[in-house]
Amino acid sequence: MRTVFLTIALILVSFILEAQEKEVANRKGFVIGLSSGYELYKKDNFALDFQLQTTLGRTFLKGDGYRDAATIFIGVGFNWY
Asked: Is-contact 30 55, C-beta < 8 A?
């Protein structure tokens, strides 16, 4: 039997940034992550799976500005259990 998995995470973050003028600014933002995978092969205590993970985030800057970030990860997992 093949296994499919899905994970969703939402993380609220707070950043402390230090400017060149030595001012300390507290910035808030959020990150949401989504990962899924599919088991390609399984035998005895070994499994091989394909994984896809993505993360999207935004940090709010001074004024009305913001900074976005995104990552995509594709991987193959080897599991012994």
From this structure: no
pTM, to two decimals: 0.63
- Reply yes or no on domain 4-80 having CATH 2.20.200: yes
Task: Give the sheet arrangement for strand 46-60, strand by strand.
Answer: 4-18, 24-43, 46-60, 66-80
Q: What are the boundaries of each domain within the chain?
A: 4-80
Largest CA distance in the chain: 61
User: 33-77: per-residue pLDDT in tens?
Assistant: 888 888 888 888 898 888 888 888 888 877 788 889 899 999 998
**CB contact at 8 A, 41 and 62:** no
Closest by CA position to 30, among listed 10, 6, 48:
10
